[in-house]
Amino acid sequence: PYDLLVVGGGPAGAAAAIYAARKGIRTGLVAERFGGQVMDTVGIENFISVPYTEGPKLSASLEQHVKEYGVDIITDQRAANLTRKQMVELELQSGATLSSRSVVLATGARWRQLGVPGEEKYRTKGVAYCPHCDGPFFKGKHVAVIGGGNSGIEAAIDLAGIVKQVTVLEFADTLRADEVLVRKARSMNNLDIITNAQTTEVLGDGNKVNGLAYTDRETGKSKQLELAGVFVQIGLVPNTEWLRESEVELNRMGEILIDERGATSVPGVYAAGDATTVPYKQIVISMGAGATAALGAFDYLIRSSVA
Ligand code: FAD
């Protein structure tokens, strides 16, 4: 059995594994794919102390750093369930079970997709999901934000300070964001809002986005906008479906509830990163959270009797 088993190989999981291994405890890391969302990212300009890097490069450094320690890395494996008996038992989809005295859950999240033509084709070529990350790439340009909930309106306000023009498209007839955000958005003169708009296609020139097509749900008419970027803000889904049958407490959005040390509702089970209730989902934040969770788990281990 392991002393600490990390589930997930993104920034949170990598940080947790390094912090655990440096305590000299038996550490394992199981992940479907090393690097997590970072592998899907092109330019990264907010990884502090590194002015510019790219996803695959940062992923490779994460993996190399973890490999400097005696961490048992198991990739291409999906966790399927977690139970707690004497130890924490992690069931894998392959049928195997791994036992550990403590666990750090770091299975991350994924952006909900529109599912319209052009979205996949122009991903990272104008289709973006993270305004903190990609906003500055659209300086001086016209962009759309799809989604009029809190994250959509926050993104629109944020982007309006950077880009030339922001158009928000909301499917319903009203915005679902908090009134104070809506008021702020309406007060900005380079931000306009279209409700009853069903996005039907992301348009491009073959290399990058140059527009967007939507249906006006009131009139049924098809319309087009000319723009350079589309920020999809219709939800971030935590990769925690596999925990639904477990005793690990999740909130209504499926995020793992943690305390300030990363502890979940199950003794010995810690969590970090985008899969949790942590308010902002970013690489540096996930790494810090991974370190916190590993130290939290280590504290737990030294206080529990040796199994
Ligand atoms: P993830 O990176 O999501 O990693 C999750 C890990 O868990 C992966 O290894 C995955 O394979 C594994 N996993 C999932 N389910 C299972 C399972 N059932 N069993 C086993 N393993 C599993 N942030 C920034 O700070 N700057 C940026 O510029 C930036 N740009 C971004 C661009 C894009 C396109 C995207 C999608 C995100 C971007 N982000 C950026 C956000 C950042 O990538 C995330 O906040 C960060 O990767 C979260 O780290 P994590 O370790 O919590 O989860």
From TrEMBL:
Domain FAD/NAD(P)-binding: 2-286
Binding site for FAD: 3-18, 264-274
CC terms in the record's Gene Ontology section: cytosol; protein-containing complex
Comment on bound cofactor: Binds 1 FAD per subunit.
The keyword DNA damage belongs to this UniProt entry's keyword annotation: no
Signal peptide: none
Binding site for NAD(+): 142-156
MF terms (GO), sorted A to Z: flavin adenine dinucleotide binding; NAD binding; NADH-dependent peroxiredoxin activity; oxidoreductase activity, acting on a sulfur group of donors, NAD(P) as acceptor
One of the GO biological process terms: response to reactive oxygen species
This protein's UniProt keywords: Disulfide bond, FAD, Flavoprotein, NAD, NADP, Oxidoreductase, Redox-active center
CC cofactor: FAD
SS bonds (residue pairs): 130-133
Family: Belongs to the class-II pyridine nucleotide-disulfide oxidoreductase family.
Protein purpose: Serves to protect the cell against DNA damage by alkyl hydroperoxides. It can use either NADH or NADPH as electron donor for direct reduction of redox dyes or of alkyl hydroperoxides when combined with the AhpC protein.
Description of how the protein assembles with itself and partners: Homodimer.
Protein name in the entry: Alkyl hydroperoxide reductase subunit F
Organism: Microbulbifer rhizosphaerae
Lineage: Bacteria, Pseudomonadati, Pseudomonadota, Gammaproteobacteria, Cellvibrionales
